[in-house]
Amino acid sequence: MADADYLPLPEDFDRALVVVAHPDDMEYGGAGAVARWTAQGREVSYLLVTRGEAGIDTLRPDECARVREDEQRAACAAVGVTRCEFLDHPDGLVEYSLALRRDIAAAIRRHRPQLVVTGNHRGYWDVLGEYPDQADHVAVGRAVIDAVRDAANRWIFPGAGGERWDGVRGIAAAASPYARHAVDISDHLDAAVASLAAHARYLEALSGPMSDPDTFLRDEARKAAERLPGASAATTFEYLQP
């Protein structure tokens, strides 16, 4: 039986907050949606849980952090995002914890988004469980889901980030094997490629298909668009309602 068509991701929001573990996480697929939203006049902010300091084997962590922060800000600029914040959780060692939930809940209260976007929290990249996800991605994705509820409860983490915020209408997890929704990025694929290409030093250290932003993103976007009627390029999300 053929796979069902994707549903359009609900876009009934004015403000979105992207929360991911590392510089480059959002750029591997989801940034095209961000480019669409900023072009429509929506406000999108980024929160990076780490500075990506363990991501390039040939660079010491302190130098790597500076490089990857600069590359992430350039990646944000390519899709129209001007607010990019970094936390200081350790790259590669992120733990699902109350501290992580508190930090993310505080950011949600500060930015007051109606949509929160994160990465794959499922533990695997595929529904068969053959390709494990990276531990930081899983910890951050799980913490984001819980932090949305935390931010809405005045008695949880009181004072963190300001007044409680219960206005989040949905959580969109990019690159999930359980994606059922997609965003048409037909007019924004070039921006998505430029956003990933901004991670130049990081890409230099990679090998294989993921080191070529143009080919990788265009192939993935074309495949996704086959299940989103009317689109020539798309990016997929698992959509959760808090």
From TrEMBL:
EC main group: hydrolase
Superkingdom classification of source: Bacteria
EC number per UniProt: 3.5.1.-
Keywords: Hydrolase, Zinc
Gene3D superfamilies linked to this entry: LmbE-like
Single GO MF annotation: hydrolase activity
Protein name: PIG-L family deacetylase
Species, as recorded: Pseudonocardia nematodicida
